[in-house]
């Protein structure tokens, strides 16, 4: 009798004649043979909450990125060969540059709507990364990573890492001054790894920096390898989500066995499709009205040029901040050197990734809770975890802000060395202050009945 | 049941407001920074002039050539205006005096903007009529400036700007932060000719850029480029202050905030909050309850409105596309179409569907006893184990086969790692550069550098002759007559010429900021600061090793040459650097 409800909803939503619906249903049955299963899954239940949209934002940003990215592939030339620019942007007329950079200028100035598409692509990447981070912290603060969703937590973190990495590759492709500066730093970071560093850098980048073979290499990785991996992992992520159903916040009649929410067809499907288009519209508006990465102003990369306000895109900003704030900690071990760059740029992201990947198991270990959970926790239910999360969030925010310290110093007339010292102190101190504060507040507001263990 | 406020509803709103505010404040603050940084004596000296000065400032440098064209100046009157107003400071033939030389002022637009707006040390001349301004501008550009300077182009200026200027002032000319609490001003707030004055005279912490670093033609080119940067040709859209990815990140979070508000709208009043199921599912396997919408049905016109906007957007986009290339119009029409259609669908799903909530079951692993006929993954595993254990002979053979399978597959996979060896050509080596004994120092254009190169101080980016593309060999050549060389390096700096590797020992960026007063080289990437009074040792920032010094000599013809390669590897550290 489930079909009756699907039929009723569809006819109500679209004023669909009953016989039309029956005809479609029969056609589905006869062509797929799985009509029953399909009709059941069409009523897949999605609990409602605004915070569940972060994943959707990320997914739809990926859709926008693929569409705009394929379009840009038709115009981008992944070549470091030198050419002389003769396009429409007069201030670079006659300048020698790579074919890659020239093709980005061509796309931006000579291809109709090319600039809008390029800017939509870049805005989508920034929002994509922001949505993924928000998604991650939503999972963290509500305990969504607990059994049976540990594997999906790991897949999600892998997706996050791949998106960050591919963002860096995308930032590098136009071969403008900021691109090249970023690649130069990436080369130096690789070089800082003990024992294998210099050879690994030479292997990955194709020789001593700057190498001519790098742009085609990054291009293949950026448009094929990583997006392919993202698509595959996204399929696994959503496949598991589909099988396990979505988590839900506690509420009437909701428990670990019973799920309450909106059925996919028609209500949820309409809303989420609408949301996809709203997101695409917002990104298009950003792309049309706001310039992003104006590479024509940055100029082509030459290794002897450099610029102030040399920031990466925001999702790499926390590493930039860590690199700026870490003191000159070169370590000498028996005639060998461990460069100071290694700590913030190679070790820190490794530690952060390790902690996050292991978090579900650490959490289970501390709370001795290995049960299946489909109902989420409110942040106040677990003051310890919430305090740790708030501390981490503060830490990353301070790192991110420090990554733009020279911009803030120039904008607000602060002394950069003073600002740096303040940021260093805040980065170390503030996470603990915020964590303890959050713990104290939530600890007091803990309901009396709470039997939950707190780490 | 009243729709309950979404969880943490204020959070996205706060995020949104904060990001938007920051995205607006930051570029504005940068714009304001230069003007408040150095209180302009010109403006304070002639307060009456400030009104007209700012009035013509709004017109900008782009407008001044028009003035020149329409005012039909006479050379004679230009000369008269020059003699009456300019020669006192700039010399009777513009050769310079109290004010800088006008040899590089080869473009009327540069002169006109300076005369009408005034600079840091030069007052505005509001008493001159537009015709007089045009006349004197043309006179200076054609009669005073060096003929060579008139061949300067914007593109050359851009290349030189990114070599010498963008390290402090940023590639967009919007300024930057320096060591010891100083800041480099934005170049958008002064007439571009002010850049000429700064290059010729130096300006506090800013060194002189003249002679072999920038000759008059190159100075003119840089000034032209600065003028371009003040209002760069824009393909459309707001530039977000031209201060790089920081404001872009803030804007992205503002975008995320808007998306969250949309999500709040979509989720508001939905689900359990809106209509908790009234009846129990009566024990069905995947029971569900539909609560018929008893409320007044939502109106359909908002969806219709959205769809009409979508149609208008689609038509508008094609029309705009045919008409021409305009980022705002293209993006605006397409965005309107997408937003209209998206709103209509979202509204439809939110308000025009029957108001129902489904109740279902989460898939849970069956109790061990109650495993269904189809079984679970662990059932299959157990069955497989039974199968394997059923016969001891089969078991050993299967285990051998399994081991072999894993080994073979693994080895085959690992063997393909050999392909990786072809990825990186053999490193030329991190231990040497292109500097050879006797190699002459040349500019980026390949011009050899003599002992007369830096009469007024300053810096030249130099390369070994024949290797102007060798990134690892770039050096900053400085004339620091007052600084004593380090012991053991007394013979490395003949006549006070010091050359330091320009590749930062921290992360490899070009160490492009040379602070004349502070006597520091600073890397714009991570602000590593190297003290030139002490062998370019790092005194602030994350770099730990000094910039390697290139031993110099002066050959018989007066050219600067390298004695030999650097004594230690240049650039960022690696584990066997001291090997």
Question: How would you portray this structure in words?
Answer:
The complex is a heterodimer of chains A (455) and B (579). Chain A is mostly helical and 455 residues long. Among the domains of chain A are: 1-43, no CATH class; 49-310, Up-down Bundle (Cytochrome Bc1 Complex, Chain C), CATH 1.20.810. Chain A is 66% helix and 4% strand. Chain A has 17 helices and six strands. Chain A has helices spanning 2-14, 18-32, 35-42, 53-73, 99-109, 114-142, 150-172, 177-191, 197-205, 214-244, 264-289, 295-298, 314-325, 342-367, 383-402, 405-412, 416-444; strands spanning 45-46, 82-84, 96-98, 258-263, 331-333, 336-338. A two-stranded antiparallel ribbon of chain A has the order 1-4. A two-stranded antiparallel sheet of chain A has the order 2-3. Chain A starts with a helix and ends in an 11-residue tail after the last helix. Chain B is an alpha+beta fold and 579 residues long. Among the domains of chain B are: 15-230, no CATH class; 300-355; 441-562, 3-layer Sandwich (Rieske Iron-sulfur Protein), CATH 2.102.10. In chain B, the strands form four sheets. Chain B has a four-stranded antiparallel β-sheet with strand order 4-5-6-7, with no helix packed on it. Mean pLDDT of chain B is 83; it is low at 1-5, 34-73 and 271-294. Chains A and B meet through helix 1, helix 4, helix 6, helix 8 and helix 9 of A and helix 1, helix 9, strand 1, strand 2 and helix 11 of B. Strand 4 (258-263) of chain A pairs antiparallel with strand 3 of chain B, so a sheet runs across the interface.
């Amino acid at each position: 009798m489930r079909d009756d409800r699907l039929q009723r909803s569809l006819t109500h939503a679209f004023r669909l004649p009953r016989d039309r619906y029956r005809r479609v249903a029969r056609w589905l049955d006869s062509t797929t043979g799985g009509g029953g299963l399909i009709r059941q899954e069409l009523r897949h239940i999605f609990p409602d909450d605004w915070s569940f949209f972060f994943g959707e934002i990320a997914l739809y940003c990926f859709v926008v990125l693929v569409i705009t990215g394929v379009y840009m592939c038709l115009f981008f030339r992944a070549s470091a060969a030198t050419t002389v620019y003769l396009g429409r942007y007069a201030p670079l007329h006659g300048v020698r540059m790579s074919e890659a950079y020239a093709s980005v200028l061509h796309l931006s100035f000579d291809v109709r709507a090319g600039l809008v598409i390029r800017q939509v692509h870049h805005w989508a990447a920034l929002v994509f990364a922001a949505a993924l981070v928000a998604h991650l912290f939503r999972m963290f603060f509500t305990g969504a990573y607990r059994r049976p969703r540990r594997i999906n937590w790991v897949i999600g973190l892998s997706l996050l890492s791949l998106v960050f990495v591919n963002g860096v590759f995308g930032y590098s492709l136009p071969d403008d001054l900021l691109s090249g500066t970023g690649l130069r730093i990436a080369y130096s970071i690789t070089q800082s790894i003990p024992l294998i560093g210099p050879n690994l850098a030479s292997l990955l980048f194709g020789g001593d920096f700057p190498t001519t073979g790098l742009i085609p290499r990054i291009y293949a990785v950026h448009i094929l390898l990583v997006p392919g991996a993202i698509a595959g992992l996204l399929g696994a992520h959503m496949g598991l989500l589909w099988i396990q159903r979505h988590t839900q916040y506690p509420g009437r009649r909701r428990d670990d066995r019973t799920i309450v929410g909106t059925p996919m067809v028609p209500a949820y499907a309409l809303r989420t499709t609408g949301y996809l288009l709203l997101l695409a519209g917002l990104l298009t508006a950003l792309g049309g009205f706001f310039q992003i990465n104006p590479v024509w102003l940055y100029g082509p990369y030459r290794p002897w040029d450099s610029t102030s306000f040399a920031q990466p895109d925001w999702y790499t900003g926390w590493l930039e901040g860590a690199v700026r704030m870490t003191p000159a900690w070169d370590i000498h071990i028996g005639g060998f050197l461990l460069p100071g760059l290694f700590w913030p740029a190679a070790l820190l992201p490794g530690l952060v990734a390790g902690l996050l990947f292991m978090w579900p198991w650490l959490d289970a270990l501390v709370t001795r809770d290995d049960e299946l959970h489909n109902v989420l926790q409110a942040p106040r239910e677990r003051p310890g975890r919430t305090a740790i999360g708030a501390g981490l969030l503060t830490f990353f925010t301070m790192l991110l802000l420090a990554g733009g310290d020279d911009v803030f110093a120039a904008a607000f007339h602060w002394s950069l060395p003073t600002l740096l010292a303040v940021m260093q102190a805040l980065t170390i101190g503030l996470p603990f202050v915020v964590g303890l504060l959050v713990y104290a507040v939530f600890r007091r507001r803990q309901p009396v009945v709470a039997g939950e263990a707190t780490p | 049941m009243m729709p309950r406020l979404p969880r943490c509803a204020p959070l996205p709103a706060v995020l949104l407001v904060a990001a938007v505010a920051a995205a607006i404040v930051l570029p504005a603050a940068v714009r304001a920074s230069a003007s408040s940084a150095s209180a302009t004596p010109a403006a304070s000296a002639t307060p009456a002039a400030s009104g007209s000065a700012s009035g013509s400032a709004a017109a900008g440098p782009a407008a001044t050539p028009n003035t020149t064209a329409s005012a039909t100046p006479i050379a004679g009157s230009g000369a008269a205006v020059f003699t009456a107003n300019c020669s006192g400071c700039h010399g009777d033939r513009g050769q310079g005096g109290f004010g800088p030389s006008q040899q590089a002022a080869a473009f009327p637009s540069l002169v006109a903007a300076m005369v009408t707006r005034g600079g840091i040390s030069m007052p505005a001349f509001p008493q001159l009529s537009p015709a007089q301004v045009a006349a004197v501008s043309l006179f200076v550009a054609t009669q005073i400036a060096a003929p060579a300077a008139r061949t300067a182009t914007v593109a050359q200026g851009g290349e030189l700007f990114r070599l010498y200027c963008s390290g402090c002032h940023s590639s967009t000319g919007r300024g930057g932060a320096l060591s010891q609490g100083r800041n480099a001003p934005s170049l958008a707030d002064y007439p571009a000719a002010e850049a000429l004055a700064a290059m010729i005279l130096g300006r506090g912490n800013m060194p002189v850029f003249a002679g072999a670093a920038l000759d008059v033609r190159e100075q003119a080119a840089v000034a032209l480029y600065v003028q371009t940067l003040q209002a760069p040709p824009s393909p459309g859209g707001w530039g977000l202050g031209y201060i790089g990815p920081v404001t872009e990140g803030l804007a992205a979070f503002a975008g995320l905030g808007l998306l969250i508000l949309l999500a709040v709208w979509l989720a508001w009043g939905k689900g359990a909050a809106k209509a908790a199921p009234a009846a129990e599912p009566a024990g069905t396997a995947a029971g569900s309850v539909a609560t018929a919408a008893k409320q007044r049905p939502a109106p359909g016109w908002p969806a219709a409105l959205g769809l009409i906007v979508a149609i208008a957007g689609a038509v508008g986009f094609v029309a705009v596309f045919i008409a021409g290339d305009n980022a705002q119009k293209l993006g605006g029409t397409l965005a309107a179409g997408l937003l209209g259609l998206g709103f209509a669908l979202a509204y439809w799903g939110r308000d025009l569907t029957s108001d129902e909530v489904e109740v279902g079951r989460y898939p849970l692993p069956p109790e061990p006893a109650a495993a269904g006929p189809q079984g679970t993954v662990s059932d299959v595993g157990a069955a497989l184990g039974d199968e394997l254990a059923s016969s001891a002979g089969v078991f050993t053979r299967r285990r051998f086969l399994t081991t072999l399978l894993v080994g073979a597959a693994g080895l085959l996979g690992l063997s393909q790692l050999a392909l990786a060896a072809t990825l990186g050509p053999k490193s030329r080596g991190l231990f040497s550069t292109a500097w050879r004994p006797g190699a002459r120092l040349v500019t980026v254009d390949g011009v050899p550098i003599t002992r007369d190169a830096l009469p007024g101080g300053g810096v030249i980016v130099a390369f070994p002759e024949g290797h102007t593309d060798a990134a690892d060999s770039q050096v900053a050549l400085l004339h620091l007559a007052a600084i004593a060389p380090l012991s053991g390096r007394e013979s490395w700096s003949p006549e006070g010429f010091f050359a330091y590797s320009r590749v930062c020992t921290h992360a490899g960026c070009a160490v492009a900021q040379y602070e004349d007063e502070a006597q520091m080289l600073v890397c714009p990437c991570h602000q590593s600061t190297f003290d030139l009074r002490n062998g370019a040792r790092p005194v602030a920032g994350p770099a730990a090793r000094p910039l390697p010094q290139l031993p110099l000599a002066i050959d018989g013809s007066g050219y600067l040459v390298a004695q030999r390669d650097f004594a230690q590897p240049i650039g960022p550290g690696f584990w066997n650097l001291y090997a």
